[in-house]
Specification:
heterodimer, A: alpha+beta, seven-stranded mixed β-sheet, five-stranded mixed β-sheet, 30% helix, 25% strand, globular, B: mainly alpha, 4 helices
Amino acid sequence: MSDFLMPKLGADMTAGTLVAWKKKPGDKVRRGDIMAEVDTDKGVIDIEAFTDGILDELLVQPGTIVPVGIPLARIRAEGQEGLAVVAASIPAEAPKILKPSPVVFPTASPPPALSGDELARLRISPSARQRARELGVDPRGVQGTGRGGAITREDIERAAADASPSPSTPAAAPATKLAESTDRNRRMRQAIAAAMARANREIPHYYLSTTIDLKPALDWLTAQNERCPVADRLLYGVLLLKATALALREVPELNAFWQDDRLAIQPSIHLGVAVSLRGGGLIAPALHDADRKSLGQLMKELRDLVARVRSGGLRSSELSDPTITVTSLGEQGIEAVYGVIYPPQVALVGFGKVVERPWSVTGQIVSRPLVIATLAGDHRATDGHRGGVFLAALERLLQDPAKL
Amino acid sequence: MSEAEIRQTVLRVLGNIAPEADLARLNSQGRLRDQLDIDSMDFLNFVIGLHNELNVEIPERDYGQLLTLDACVNYLTSALQRSNRT
């Protein structure tokens, strides 16, 4: 018998709200199966099983806020007897089902309790959901006017305006509303604050940068995309991701965690790709085994990942196991980004905007598309020299895009 | 397909990409990217959506002709006329 625990999906998570169970007692579960949906600061996440067996008993009801590490259910090995039989021999201390009376934490007050099914059925964008929390609007009562009846930010704002205090509303109402503004936006901000403050407190960062000529990569990409139907076209960002993953093979100590005062190099390269949310906030879920996948495969997975960041359906493994973060602020016109490392990772790779600039090629000044690649490294884990080897490898790999 | 139908289709595809946006308030001559906070991945999904809905091939070199709602409608109208003639 093993416990299925509320997982820790990143250094900044302390608890999650169980939204819905996807399995019922007696169901066979395989490692990687989706067991439940959990609402976190990063949206509703599909939580995967980490072991094979039979789901024996659910310990928590939907709607409950559960701290990280607390059992949600019990899974028994196949062939092991079920609870009904075993229970008779166990004294009355068998764990009781946590009732959906929310556990309250000092740093975050509970969100309005939505039942799991209701939350799952609502067609509402993360941004509108966030707005609903901010304004204390219950999205269940809101008429959606977006595509397919989806609830938009405007719908939420209209509902909030309609519900503005009538003369009979007690004076305490605004205060309550203020208290309820400990919503997802604030919770996500708090979570990012905790992780980033820890990073700045604990990690002695060093920063390196190099300018890379992207002409070979972009020329190759243009020719490639010319031949492709639109659904198979690549974004240049995928070339940067693949080159990053391959360069990490050459400097594996950057693909690592700093844990218990020592460096733990990770066997697989899972790139945490920073994706910004509409309306603020940031999630960096993993592109798994990026060094071993073709560009086409990576592109497909990246598209899928970005879509799920924005509309829901991220899996727990994608949030809990990135081994390094890659961020690009080029879309905003930023030329170089010097990032803060997400602990326990030990490095962050940044890419800026691709800009046409004068560049010297064999003694001639020519115009070339250039990108500034940066590395933020944890000086406990690596030294600047190794960071430099990594950036040099990255540049070299991008000069020969056909081999990526 | 009429211009109005093409416009409706473009708006529908945009709605799938930015579900929280109020498209009724979209300035048809303003850049979509700025108004809807669209990045390159969103834009690619937009082009794929247009391709699926209208069966129009949009080569990458033409992306610059799809920057505003009006420009999209113009581009797609003539692209559809071209493909009807052939």
